[in-house]
User: Which sequence fits this backbone?
């Protein structure tokens, strides 16, 4: 059995943030803007003229075989206890950023094979989620189809992901990005946030639908284990192999990215070359992070992993998703063996400034490409 572990965004001028706190659970806030389309209780779902987003929380079946049984039990227990006890939200930071009308977000990555020990699916299922996305975020959905994006259900029917590659894409040559968005986000919005950024670099894209379309409790999102399983499946399906993938998590997605990354990094066939943790600190009280800290994956579980961290100095929650929290996260990751290749502390940026402030994504992409050996 795989180890089990276990968003904000700005769309059309709406920034939504959900931060997981060990004492109070999930705090959410939104900053007003026009043209919002989300059905989430705490956010609107449309894009602004600049934007960022973070992505999703799924896991790979094949990665499950590579993670140790003891790590699996430890993380599984801590997540199920947290999800059943919490009604507010024990998963992490979520927030929103601004996006351009053409921007799009996306989500993560890793290969997988069928595993009969996988738990029953969570949520309403892929078909119902797709219908909800089409009605709740129709503008982004329609625009994404026109741009060539596809929406593909996972093999177990639990959820789906957005998939896009540029003309002439070659998985052995081009980069690939997987995105785990912020809270209350549809995969269509994620693609909108990231579309222009990835098109410029000719990267392929997967954005995971890890939110179940309503609610903000832990049970309303995929767990890190399920997130990784879905990423791994998508990457294997589309011929992406080896450590080639850039994984980005935003806000709530970033808060879950540490657990998703450790599942990949300790698997037999890792996919992630680099992880971007965007405006979402590694909160020590969050059960998946506590399992990492307690040694479920070894003393140095991030040894050899590469990271880009982002914080905006104008973020209104500096200890959870701003530069205090991300500085603490940097120290925590490095103590467990991680290499921080780039730490962007943006004096002009707010919670969603990574995709919004010009130059930030290019700096991260440059750091990613500096690691390429193919």
Assistant:
């Amino acid at each position: 059995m795989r180890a089990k572990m276990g968003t904000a965004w700005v769309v059309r001028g709406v920034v939504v943030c959900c931060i997981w706190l060990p004492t109070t659970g999930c705090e959410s806030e939104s900053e007003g803007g026009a043209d919002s389309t989300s059905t989430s209780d705490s956010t609107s779902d449309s894009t602004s003229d600049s934007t960022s987003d973070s992505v999703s929380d799924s896991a790979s079946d094949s990665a499950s075989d590579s993670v140790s049984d003891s790590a699996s039990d430890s993380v599984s227990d801590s997540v199920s206890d947290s999800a059943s006890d919490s009604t507010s939200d024990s998963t992490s930071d979520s927030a929103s950023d601004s996006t351009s009308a053409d921007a799009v977000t996306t989500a993560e990555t890793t290969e997988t094979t069928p595993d009969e020990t996988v738990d029953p699916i969570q949520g309403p299922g892929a078909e119902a989620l797709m219908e909800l996305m089409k009605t709740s975020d129709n503008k982004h959905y329609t625009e994404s189809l026109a741009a060539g994006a596809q929406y593909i259900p996972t093999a177990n029917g639990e959820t789906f992901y957005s998939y896009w590659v540029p003309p002439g894409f070659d998985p052995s040559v081009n980069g690939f990005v997987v995105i785990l968005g912020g809270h209350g986000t549809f995969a269509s919005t994620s693609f909108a946030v990231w579309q222009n950024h990835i098109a410029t670099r000719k990267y392929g894209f997967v954005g995971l639908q890890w939110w179940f379309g309503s609610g903000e409790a832990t049970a309303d999102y995929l767990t890190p284990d399920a997130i990784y399983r879905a990423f791994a499946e998508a990457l294997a399906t589309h011929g992406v192999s080896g450590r080639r993938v850039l994984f980005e998590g935003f806000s709530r997605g970033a808060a879950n990215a540490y657990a998703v990354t450790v599942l990949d990094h300790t698997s037999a066939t890792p996919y992630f070359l680099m992880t971007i943790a965007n405006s979402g600190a590694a909160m020590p009280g969050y059960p998946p992070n506590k399992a990492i800290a307690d040694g479920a994956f070894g003393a140095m579980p991030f040894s050899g992993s590469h990271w880009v961290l982002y914080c905006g100095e104008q973020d209104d929650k500096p200890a959870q998703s701003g530069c205090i929290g991300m500085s603490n996260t940097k120290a925590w990751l490095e103590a467990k063996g991680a290499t921080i290749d780039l730490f962007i502390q943006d004096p002009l940026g707010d919670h969603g400034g990574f995709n919004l402030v010009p130059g930030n994504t290019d700096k991260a992409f440059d750091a990613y490409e500096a690691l390429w050996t193919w």
Remarks:
- Residues 9-369 form a domain with the Rossmann fold fold (CATH 3.40.50.1820).
